[in-house]
Design brief:
Length: 670
């Protein structure tokens, strides 16, 4: 008898009550939700890997016989051990499997059991070990589902063993009515959904599972792009105000600069002027590499707003960055007679009288009053949530919005993250910047490093020494700023060595930064709090310790603190050299200063999922991130979404899609 996909699991014959409850806890209550629990990977159990004679390479899938088991060790260091031999190969090869803090396994794995194992081998004491392998005990029952085929491996559900979960899903796919497996929009009518699900779970060949996952990726990305296109269309219908007609302040500011703007900066300013002069709110992203001059472009936009008779604000994610912007804006705009206010959790300066206000999250609250807020600039926008950005925007009346990021985004992901924004790109650096030389050093001698830094300090330069930790940690083997600061003070007896980290009170932080900016402190030992917002042109040395612990994008941001003046700069990446992947990452950074190239390499090394998680929290719910770097899929579904809205702008013919979109908008306060 066929069953509807919306039927509850307890109506599926053969499923026990305790299994229904365990699946419910995992968020699976209906047959459709069970079928949507897709495999995380597959094992081709028509053939298995050979038992390894030594460690090396990646993970392996083995089939063997348990010939010995033991519980070893005590307490937190105890583990369960099983020796598995290759009985199909004559018993000449063995691996030893260990599971720590899992004493109950003696009830599951015993001598004589045939098992399938999946894990990464390593060597210890002449034995080949696999720690915490995924495993499955083989039995004669249900061999057609579990052996001699490509077998799905699922994310674990507590209380339902892997074998049993596979059997229940197999049963559900046999009895579910295909027409009841409906989606919000049929992205490919030529590929029936019941066939897609069957090939996703139990493919005859791996290419079938690839095709099925590609289908689901299209389906998911279509909804994501539809949301973007819908939001963009709704924004285009808004009636804002016309700003930027008067350019007196902008012209005066431009003529006062002792240098010329880059062509990329000029192009971006023109794009912003064009947006501000249209009677709909501007919604633009300014994306630029570290040191590309985003601040001056933002200043130009804010002057246009002020010249139009309204107020402009810039919101930054940290107090250090906000105070740096306040200093920079005040330096350049005070000669024009323009006051710049500052609003942070600890400081309020000129917030009542200033036409331009720079601040942190403090700008979101009523303690800061705005007088006709016309332009909002959000710096390092990915560090703010959608709700926070929306709250600030609602403090104005249809204000223009310019968001900025110094985190270069792989071109292949721009459509995914910023598809609803107009984008300006700063792809060149201002003239007069000194060259940055970067190098990877494996366990360098501290005396040589010290002498090199002293050589630069004696020339009048300054240096950053960056550590991953604030204090020493028993669990993490890495340098800490507090402990190492004391050592560097002894090494640099004739120089002032400052200390900066996130746990220092705000007033003390500002005092430390002021001394470093003024050149009174020659060396700054710090954590990553200097990642953004620190602009000291005289600093030309950065040494990053335990550099392998940082991501490529973060390392590039840190390096961006040097090379801001005319002097040649040096970035030293110190590592223990134990991890080949980490060395590859560091050598990529040492080989280029182009943030966009680094972003593409970061995408290659970490994959779209991790990169997206860093860039934008709102994309974390995507399930098929491995396809995000395939621009052909993104462009294809974008075109489908645009055509759908062209033919049905208000979605009267697609009421379910409209209800979903409105629910999404409500959930993000947009």
């Amino acid at each position: 008898m066929e069953m509807n996909a919306n039927d509850l699991l307890q109506s599926l014959s053969g499923v026990r009550n305790q299994e229904v409850e365990a699946l419910r806890v995992a968020g699976i209550e209906r047959i459709a939700e069970l079928i949507e629990w897709l495999p995380k990977r597959y094992e081709d159990r028509r053939r298995f890997d050979a038992f390894p004679a030594q460690a090396g390479g990646g993970s392996v899938c083995l089939r063997g016989l348990v010939i010995d088991t033991q519980r070893k060790g005590f307490g937190g260091k105890g583990f369960y051990e099983a020796v598995v031999e290759d009985h199909a190969g004559g018993g000449f090869a063995q691996v030893t499997c260990r599971w720590f803090k899992m004493p109950f396994l003696h009830k599951i794995i015993a001598v004589g059991h045939e098992v399938v194992l999946y894990g990464k081998p390593k060597e210890n004491g002449g034995k080949v070990l696999i720690d915490h392998p995924e495993f499955e005990v083989v039995s004669e029952e249900g061999r057609s589902v579990h052996l001699e085929r490509i077998v799905p491996i699922y994310k674990n559900v507590s209380g339902v063993p892997q074998r049993r979960l596979r059997e229940v899903i197999f049963k559900a796919l046999e009895v579910v009515e295909g027409d009841s497996l409906i989606s919000l929009y049929d992205i490919d009518p030529s590929y029936p959904r019941i066939k897609v699900f069957r090939e996703a779970h139990f493919p005859e060949e791996l290419k079938e599972s690839d095709a099925a996952r590609r289908y689901f990726a299209k389906e998911e990305f279509f909804l994501q792009q539809l949301r973007v296109v819908w939001r963009r269309a709704r924004h285009a219908d808004l009636s804002g105000r016309i700003l930027g007609k008067r350019t007196g302040l902008l012209t005066e500011f431009y003529n006062s600069l002792p240098f010329d703007l880059t062509d990329a900066q000029k192009r971006s300013v023109k794009e912003i002027i064009r947006d501000m002069r249209i009677q709909r709110p501007m919604n633009r992203l300014l994306q630029g590499d570290v040191g590309s001059g985003k601040t001056f472009v933002a200043m130009c936009a804010m002057l246009l707003a002020v010249d139009s008779g309204c107020q402009a604000v810039l919101m930054a994610p940290t107090q250090i960055l906000a105070e740096q912007h306040h200093l920079t804006f005040s330096k350049w705009l005070s000669p024009l007679g323009i006051k710049v206010g500052l609003a942070t959790a600890d400081r309020r300066e000129d917030v009542m009288a200033a036409p331009i206000i720079v601040g942190t999250h403090a700008l979101l609250y009523d303690k800061v009053d705005f007088d006709d807020l016309g332009l909002i600039v959000i710096d390092e926008q990915h560090k703010f949530g959608v709700a926070q950005r929306g709250k600030l925007i609602r403090r104005g009346v249809m204000p223009d919005v310019l968001v900025m990021t110094a985190t270069p985004i792989p071109r292949t992901l721009t459509l995914t993250i910023y598809g609803d924004l107009d984008v300006s790109i700063l792809d060149e650096l201002p003239a007069g910047r000194g060259k940055i030389i970067s190098g990877v050093r494996v366990k360098p001698k501290i005396t040589e490093l010290t002498n090199f830094i002293i050589g630069q300090l004696e020339k009048g330069r300054q240096a950053y020494l960056v550590y991953p930790l604030v204090n020493e940690s028993k669990s993490v083997k890495a340098g800490s700023a507090v402990e190492e600061h004391l050592k560097w003070q002894k090494r640099f007896k004739h120089f002032e060595v400052g200390l900066l980290h996130g746990k220092i009170p705000s007033e003390e932080k500002e005092a430390v930064m002021t001394r470093f900016r003024d050149g009174k402190t020659e060396v700054l030992v710090s954590t990553t709090v200097i990642e953004v917002g620190v602009d000291v042109p005289n600093a030309n040395v950065m040494v990053i310790f335990n550099a392998e612990r940082f991501g490529l994008a973060q390392l590039h941001q840190l390096r961006g603190r040097i090379g801001r003046g005319e002097h040649k700069s040096y970035c030293v990446l110190v590592t223990d050299g134990k991890n080949s992947e980490a060395l590859e990452k560091l050598n990529i950074l040492a080989g280029t200063v182009d943030g966009f190239k680094i972003a593409e390499e970061d995408l290659r090394l970490r994959g779209p999922g991790e990169v997206l998680g860093t860039l934008q929290s709102g994309t974390g719910c995507l399930r098929f991130v491995e396809f995000l770097s395939d621009t052909s899929i993104i462009r294809e579904v974008r075109e489908v979404a645009e055509e759908l809205l062209r033919n049905d702008p208000s979605l009267k013919k697609n009421v379910h899609l409209k209800a979903w979109l409105l629910g999404q908008a409500e959930g993000t306060n947009q």
